[in-house]
Amino acid sequence: MLFDSHAHLDAKRFDKDRDKVIERAKQNGISHIMNPGADFESSVKSIELASKYDIVYAAVGVHPHDASTMDEMMLQLLKGMTNKPKVMAIGEIGLDFHYDYSPRDIQRKWFREQIRMAKEVNLPIIVHDREANNEVMNILKEEEAFDTGVLMHCYSGSAEMARQYVKRGAYISIAGPITFKNARKAVEVVEAIPIDYLMIETDSPYLTPHPYRGKRNESSYVKYVAEKIAEIKGISFDEVAERTMENAKKYFRIK
Ligand SMILES: [Zn+2]
Ligand SMILES: [Zn+2]
């Protein structure tokens, strides 16, 4: 059984066949899918999906792309939503200096505010970090986010920084790009850190792994990420499945 630690099933690209995508995931041995929010609307949808589908779990939060849509009222509404069933984390939150869709100061402000909220409601966070590696690490340290739990999703930093994360008890989630021929950095990360701190994800509908690169991604393809990790670590597919399942269940506090 596999745990897809990050999928956007609420995305419009799944509107036509969401039931089938989830059915296919189950047939391919996916027993759990974490569906993070990206903005307010998708956080609401994430909770709806978690109540509709047994294998789906929810996180609420606003992505750095949409940080400029946030205000104090939205923060309070998100906080209230953490009481709903199957809301296991705050996310995805963080910094994205690649696209800069929201001004950097606004991204920083709401990243910090959402970490503080996560600490108030005692939930772990799901962190998005694109081209902001040092700042993300510094903010997480300053806000003492490691106390309640940090998951670096679709990790794109160095192996050295991954070691620093693991030292602080954070988890690293690996996505489809590790299956690409030129995936040197992600391979080094998997080599550098123990399996006890790894999770696997699709980030579907984005980041489709080989051999489906270019098509829409979906949770059933998370097995290609697991296969690649097994190959890098020289262990069996089943061990990767079991261990990443254990890690995700422990992190999101799922029985
Ligand atoms: Zn992300
Ligand atoms: Zn995402």
Rounded to the nearest angstrom, the distance between the terminal CA atoms is 15 Å
Strand arrangement within the widest β-sheet reads: 1-2-3-4-5-6-7-8
Number of strands: 8
The CATH superfamily name is Metal-dependent hydrolases
Structural class: alpha/beta
Mean pLDDT over the residues: 98
Compute the number of structural domains: 1
Number of helices: 9
CATH architecture descriptor name: Alpha-Beta Barrel
Helix content: 40-55%
The gross shape turns out to be: globular
Largest sheet: 8 strands, parallel
Beta-strand portion reads: 15-25%
CATH topology-level fold name: TIM Barrel
Summarize the structure.
By secondary structure, the chain is of the alpha/beta class. The protein is 42% helix and 16% strand. The structure holds zinc ion (2 copies).
Topology:
Layout: E1 2-4, H1 18-27, E2 30-35, H2 40-52, E3 56-60, H3 72-81, E4 87-96, H4 104-120, E5 125-130, H5 133-142, E6 150-152, H6 159-167, E7 171-174, H7 184-192, E8 198-200, H8 222-233, H9 237-252
Parallel strand pairs: 1-2, 2-3, 3-4, 4-5, 5-6, 6-7, 7-8
Structure description:
The protein is of the alpha/beta class and 255 residues long. It has helices spanning 18-27, 40-52, 72-81, 104-120, 133-142, 159-167, 184-192, 222-233, 237-252, and strands spanning 2-4, 30-35, 56-60, 87-96, 125-130, 150-152, 171-174, 198-200. The chain has a single domain (2-252), classed as TIM Barrel, CATH 3.20.20. An eight-stranded parallel sheet has the order 1-2-3-4-5-6-7-8. 42% of the residues lie in helices and 16% in strands. It is built from nine helices and eight strands. One zinc ion (ZN) binds next to loops. One zinc ion is lined by residues 6, 8, 36, 92, 203.
